[in-house]
Each structure stands twice: as C-alpha cells, then as structure tokens.
Amino acid sequence: NTSSWLDLIPQYKQEAPKTPPHIILHYVAFKTTWDWIILFLTGYTAVMVPFNAAFKSKTMDDVSFLVVDSIVDVIFFIDIVLNFHTTFVGPNGDVISDPNIIRINYLKGWFIVDLLSCLPYDVFNAFQPEATQSTISSLFGALKVVRLLRIGRVTRKLDQYLEYMAASLLLMISGFVLLAHWLACVWYSVGQADLKNGIYYGWIPRLLNDIDQTKALPANWTSGVRSCLISFLNLQ
After folding, report:
1. How is the chain split into domains, by residue range?
2. Top-confidence residue, 167 or 199
3. Helices 63-83 and 111-118, interaxial angle, to 10°?
C-alpha cells in the first residue's frame, strides 16, 4: 500500500528542506546527473592513468590525450566547487544544509584527494625543460596515481544499487576487467624496464620475435591488448 512505500522513502525526500539559495540538494536531478558524469570520468581515469603511465610518451606528441585529460581535470575541479555547496545526510538521517558545516565536512573528507586528482599533471610535465624531464615525469607519474583513490567515492555512490543482482554482477565483471588492465600495464612497465637494463629474454622480446619486429618495440596498443588479454586469462 501507499504507506509502506512511503516508509521506504527517506524523510528528507518526502519533505524538501529549506536551503540557502547557493546550496544544492544532493538528490535533485541536476546533482544526480552530475554524479553519474563524475562516475563515468572516474572510470575513464581508472583506465587511462595506468595506461598513460605505462605506454604514453612523456612529450606532447599526442595532443588529443592532453586535451581530453585537461577537460577531465576542469570537470573534476568544478566538482570540488559543487561539493562545497551540496547538502549531505548527517548521522541522524537529517539533511545538513548549513554552508559552514558542509564545507568543514568536505574539507575533513575527500577534499585533499579530489584536489590532488584535478591538478593538470600532464600540462605541467609537457612544459618541463629537457634536462629535468625524466625526474619530473617520474614525480608527476607517481602523483597521478592518487587519482585512483577516487574509486572509493564510486563504490560509496554505488552502494544504493548493489541490492540489484544485475548491478552487482556488472560491478564484479567491471572490477575483474579493471584489475586485468592494471596488471597488464604493470606487466608492460616491467618488460620495458628489463629492456632498458639490457635484459632481452622477457615477454616483449618474445613478442617481437613472434611478429618479426626484432628491431623495434611493438606498438603500444598491440602490446597493451595482448598483455591485458593474458592478464585477464590468468585471473580465471
């Protein structure tokens, strides 16, 4: 009946609380749509950060990657601004709309991770002098890994959907694929490090022999797909 359905709806959704003009309710359509955009971009980040660290050149040869990553950084920065003006549910189930409490709660929570996630590391790296390119690139590459911590926010936002079997299955499959991708990137990085250290009996030289390209490294996408598939099969 109607009363049983109302019992399942949080009280703050049955009676919209009064908020200051610059405060956004966390469950309105705009914020829900924005959260899905952030979730999608976080997934993109989880895929591209390890890929760029393992495969991409440290120069500005591929401008498309630089432009896309810069756009993502801007959107993440806008998300920080919105989080300072978005309500949240307190421990007692009440909607907290006081601006000062919202800001303090965000500063004590995900602010540092979000801030480090939106810094334009690729732009900084692209304009470094040649003399400091290697050291600075390694530092920025390490800092970009912080972006993967945003996955914690994804799992928190998806909790409300995990009661559905299809959503749980999709999340599990996505987790396995993402893990295989990370292992593939690490595997390729290890193979590259072996080549730089003069070790020529790893999996990359064997791949070069298989495709008759013993004088050059394989294309990034070719080796990446191969190592990803092998990593995924090893998880089975």
Report:
1. 1-157, 162-236
2. 199
3. 160
